[in-house]
C-alpha cells in the first residue's frame, strides 16, 4: 500500500514540476515573441501588440471594423489597455475610430489606407521571414501538434477566465 501511495505522490510531483516548466517556457516565449517580433517589424513603426491589432483588423470578418469590446475579446486583452494602444495607433495613422453605421452610439476601429499599406506591403514580408526563422526546424506535423496543444491550453484558460469575477480576468496589453 505504501508503495502505491509513493508512486501516486511521485506522479503528482512530476506533473507539478512539468507544469511549472511548461508555464515558465510559455512565459519566456511570450517575452521573446514581444522582443524579437517587435524587432522584426520595428522599422515599420509597429510593435507586436500593434501587429496583433492590424492582423485582427485585416481579417475579412473585420472589413467594416470592430468595436473596442469585440477587438479586446478577440485579442483576449482588457478594453482599457487596448484603448490606449488604439489611441497611439490612431495618432500614427494606422487605424481610425468611426461611428458604427448600424448603431450611432457605438464606434468601430478600422484600418486606414496607411495602416493597410504598413500591414500588407511593409510588415507582412518581415512577419513571414520571422515565422520562417522561428519555425525553421519545425515540420508541418510539429507545427500542427504545437498549435493543437496551445489551443488546448488556451481553451482551459478561457474556461477559468469565464468563471472569474468581472474585472479580475482582464489581461494587460502594453505598448
Task: Itemize the secondary structure elements and their pairings.
Layout: H1 2-41, H2 48-58, E1 66-67, H3 68-75, H4 79-91, E2 95-99, E3 107-111, H5 113-134, H6 140-162
Antiparallel strand pairs: 1-3, 2-3
Describe the protein's architecture and organization:
The chain has helices spanning 2-41, 48-58, 68-75, 79-91, 113-134, 140-162, and strands at residues 66-67, 95-99, 107-111. It is mainly alpha-helical. The protein has one domain: Winged helix-like DNA-binding domain superfamily/Winged helix DNA-binding domain (Arc Repressor Mutant, subunit A), CATH 1.10.10.10. Strands 1-3-2 form a three-stranded antiparallel β-sheet. The model is unreliable at 168-175 (pLDDT under 50).
Amino acid at each position: 500500500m505504501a508503495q502505491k501511495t509513493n508512486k501516486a505522490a511521485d506522479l503528482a510531483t512530476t506533473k507539478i514540476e512539468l507544469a511549472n516548466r511548461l508555464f515558465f517556457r510559455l512565459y519566456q516565449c511570450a517575452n521573446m515573441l514581444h522582443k524579437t517580433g517587435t524587432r522584426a517589424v520595428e522599422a515599420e513603426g509597429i510593435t507586436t501588440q500593434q501587429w496583433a491589432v492590424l492582423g485582427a483588423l485585416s481579417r475579412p470578418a473585420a472589413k467594416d471594423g470592430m468595436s473596442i469590446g469585440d477587438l479586446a475579446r478577440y485579442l483576449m486583452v482588457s478594453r482599457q489597455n487596448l484603448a490606449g494602444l488604439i489611441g497611439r495607433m490612431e495618432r500614427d495613422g494606422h487605424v481610425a475610430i468611426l461611428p458604427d453605421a448600424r448603431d450611432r452610439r457605438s464606434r468601430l476601429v478600422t484600418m486606414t489606407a496607411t495602416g493597410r499599406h504598413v500591414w500588407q506591403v511593409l510588415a507582412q514580408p518581415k512577419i513571414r521571414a520571422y515565422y520562417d526563422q522561428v519555425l525553421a526546424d519545425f515540420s508541418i506535423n510539429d507545427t500542427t501538434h504545437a498549435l493543437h496543444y496551445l489551443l488546448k491550453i488556451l481553451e482551459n484558460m478561457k474556461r477559468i477566465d469565464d468563471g472569474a469575477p468581472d474585472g479580475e480576468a482582464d489581461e494587460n496589453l502594453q505598448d
